[in-house]
Sequence to fold (236 residues):
Amino acid sequence: MMTHLTRSKFFSYLFVVAAPALLWACSSSEPLADQGPQRVLIETSLGELILELSDSTPGHRDNFVKLVDEGFYDGLLFHRVIKGFMVQGGDPGSRGAKPGKRLGSGGPGYTLDSEIRSDHLHTKGALSAARQGDNVNPNKKSSGSQFYLVQGKPQGTSQMRKTQRRIQSKNPEFEYTEEQLEQYAALGGTPFLDMDYTVFGYVVAGMDIIDSIAAVKTARGDRPVEDVIMNMRVIR
Fold:
């Protein structure tokens, strides 16, 4: 499998096998207004990073917190890593997986309704939900557990304008603000994913850990040769 990314291939990296949708019960771990948005610490074998979850995507926020509280993510791998693109995890089948095992099809047994927003973009550090492709998932429902953290690359103005025109072909009202263009130029990211996947948080500390994970040697299927293990806990 090719390890570089073209737009026609990125979908295969982010899809998970279909799972029956279930009614969702919200987590009992509700954010306290005086504490601000909830944050989650991800401990990895390469260092720690902190995620801040968006209150504008409550379904994804509450689901993520519930799974973290249950220990769902503890011991799982970042099973798919593509330098210059993203690092992906959340497949329960990755826990203790033997070398060479194909990963990326597991989940908790349900999907989540899309919460795609024009102000939640795929700049570097974005926390986004993986999902199946539009051909089998026209409503862009998210995997119940698989997620990716964006690394991406700096984006020039001409490239961003081209991306904007493509997005506008399906979402005519969409337009990047000057601030968003500046963020993509300074931080980098993967704007071609905007308005297609639900972004439900951002890395607020440990951004360099994304780079460390993205730099590891990978084998076939983009799985790191040496396991990158995660553990998570809610820190507020």
Remarks:
- Confidence is low (pLDDT under 50) at residues 1-13, 15-33.
- The chain has one domain: 36-234.
- Residues 58-70 form the longest helix (13 residues).
- The longest strand covers residues 142-150.
